[in-house]
Amino acid sequence: LTGAQDGSVRMFEWTRPQQLVCFQQAGNARVTRMYFNAQGNKCGVADGEGFLSIWQVNQTTSNPKPYLSWQCHSKTTSDFAFITSSSLVATSGQSNDNRNVCLWDTLVSSSNSLIHAFTCHDHGATVLQYAPKHQLLISGGRKGYICIFDIRQRQTLFTFQAHESAVKALALDPSEDYFVTGSAE
User: Which structural domain range is residue 119 located in?
Assistant: First the structure.
């Protein structure tokens, strides 16, 4: 799966030189992040205008429409994570009201899909990591802060400054004992 600054999203197969599917043509907002869900049957794409779009992967048409597309953040959606069976999605980004980490239910109408919004990261959340064993979300922000959220209780557990500049990467070890952060510095 490839995404570009021009907004195009294409899927390739290792043994074929041509694309299998073009999910999105050039001329859209820049792609900020994209992932497959754990089952491999859906892919999601976040963009620089605050949208998250999700497609079924097993498309037979060459230019399919997303089955779900909505604006998660008013400025940009920088990262996201599929939670559990992919019906729950967490997003990070930048919104005018500082609700920069959000939980969404993809099975309800778009007007009711926001489950919870965390007010955090004054200048926007840049990265997001889901820890399924502990049911935690870890986010990094533009000012170097890390926030840890309990998604069952829907509350912020910890906030601390890890870096002097924007957090650009988060990684979680498989046993969920440690996480590592990387910054712009």
Answer: 2-183
pTM of the model: 0.92
CATH number of the domain within which 86 lies: 2.130.10.10
For residue 51, what pLDDT is reported? 95
> pLDDT digit string (tens) for 106-126?
888 878 899 999 999 989 999
Q: Is the pLDDT of residue 59 over 80?
A: no
pLDDT value for 178: 96
- HEC string of the chain equals CEECCCCCEEECCCCCCCCCEEEECCCCCCEEEEEECCCCCEEEEEECCCEEEEEECCCCCCCCCCCEEEECCCCEEEEEEEECCCCEEEEEEECCCCEEEEEEECCCCHHHCEEEEEECCCCCEEEEEEECCCCEEEEEECCCEEEEEECCCCEEEEEEECCCCCEEEEEECCCCCCEEEEECC
**Total count of domains within the chain:** 1
